[in-house]
Amino acid sequence: MQIATDLSDKIARYLDLNTRQIQLTSANMANIDTPGYRAVGMDFEGEMRQAMNAIDSDEALPEPQLIAEDGLIVRPDGNNVSMDREGLNLAEAQLRFKAGVALLKGQYNGIMDAIHADAK
Q1: What is the pTM of this model?
Q2: Closest among 76, 57, 79 to 68, alpha carbons compared
Q3: What span, in angstroms and rounded, lies between the C-alpha atoms of 107 and 110?
Q4: Which residues, 6+ apart, have CB-to-CB distance to 69 below 8 Å?
């Protein structure tokens, strides 16, 4: 049996987008020494807004649009990855992920409390 609510669907998408952000950051970090590599990211807030609109209107969830990060310092080898920037991005994504898991846990705890309300 699967218990899903509108809120849990939104939190699940939030966690999916966070996971994608962590993957992008990890890929950027892994390519720190790759000549010519350009950092890739996504507009998290914009992607989340699109996902919420899609969920509310029962449309198919769009794939996140990846963007080349502009405005970064490019090293002589053509690479623009900054470990400081990627480390901050990773920390931010991890905090958002933990917040999402806490929200989802609270959502399911509320459902379980409602199911077991008669037993109390």
Answers
A1: 0.83
A2: 79
A3: 5
A4: 38, 39, 40, 41, 80
